[in-house]
Every structure is written in structure tokens, then in C-alpha cells.
Amino acid sequence: MRPDLDVVAGLVPTGSRVLDLGCGDGELLDHLFHESGCTGTGVEIEDRAVVRAIRRGVPVIELDVDTELSELADDSYDVVVLSRTLQALRRPADVLAEIRRIGRRCVVSVPNFGLWKHRASLVVRGRMPVSRELPYPWFETPNIHLSTLPDLEELFAARDWTVETRLLLDERGRRLANERLANLRAGAAVYLLSR
């Protein structure tokens, strides 16, 4: 499993009903089902990923996260996961508002555009960064809303989410031991939010 997914899984309580938005091939849900006794559903829009998730035995539905979350009932999940998905959405603020209706908690993992190497790439080279966390050139990236950690935390507050936990990851997806200069040092972050 991707290192950041391992961190995400560690924030999902045993036995939770989980909705994984942008679940890809269902790797996280498969892990949560077998290791944590969770139940739940994945949401994915890419056909090939849906097929791979189904082959894993993960229940998945095809919905556009930006426009079709109204199809899901109020308070139908304990935890909603957005793993490397929020920054790829057209309307991230609206999606966060919808998730408050659907689940009591949310786990969000995102790349941090404020990482010092990303800043240096812009300043020194005058070019958009390409890194382990942001692996695509600007014209092919699925990431349409790049943010720094303070930007993201401001959005969470504006959508009335409380940050229960913030875990910082280095560029390889491993946890950083301390939070000093977090916005400069973290390649990504994982948040546990509650309403």
C-alpha cells in the first residue's frame, strides 16, 4: 500500500463504515475491510479503476464527486476519505460541505505545494515543480487546485471542520517527527477532520 494510505488507514477507527471518494483500484478499502473490520463503499469515475476495485471485491459506484454527492444519504458513513483527491476536484469547498452532511469525520491527504523544493523550483528555475508528490508536468497534472498547508487549513475552518489530527509526511510518504517549519518541510499532510 502507498505509504500515505497506511497513514490514512491508521486514522480510520476499527469497524467504521467508510466512504472512499476517488478510491482508485480500492486498495485502501480492501485493506480496511481485511485489517480493521470496516465496511463501506468506494466512489471512482475512471472505468479501469472501477473494474480493478470490483475485482478486489470492493463495492464501488461511479459518481462524479464534484457534482453527484447529493445521491448519498445524510449521516450514512462514519468516515469519508479523500486521499489525494481534494486537489483534483473542480469544487473542493463545495465537496467538503457535502461531506459534512454525509459523514461525521473526514480523512484528507493532500500534497503540499508549500514544500521548500516546490518554492525553489518556481523561484530559481521559474518553472512549475515536478516531484514525487507532484509527479506530472503542469499540462498533464490532475491537480487543479494546488495549496499550501495554511491555505488548506483556512478552507477547513471556512467549511466548519475541526482539525482533530494533522500528520505531516516527507516526500517519500513517511511521517515527519516534528512539526517545526511544517509548511516548508512537508511533502504532504494527512488530516482527520470532524464536524
Automatic annotation (TrEMBL):
EC no.?
A: 2.3.1.31
What keyword terms does UniProt attach to this protein? Acyltransferase, Transferase
Q: Does the keyword Lipoprotein apply?
A: no
Q: Which InterPro entries match?
A: Methionine_synth_MetW, SAM-dependent_MTases_sf
**Record-linked SUPFAM superfamilies:** S-adenosyl-L-methionine-dependent methyltransferases (SSF53335)
* Entry GO MF terms: homoserine O-acetyltransferase activity
NCBIfam families assigned to the protein according to its UniProt record, in alphabetical order: metW (TIGR02081)
Q: Tell me the protein's name.
A: Homoserine O-acetyltransferase
> Which organism was this protein described from?
uncultured Nocardioidaceae bacterium
Q: From which lineage does this chain's organism come?
A: Bacteria, Bacillati, Actinomycetota, Actinomycetes, Propionibacteriales
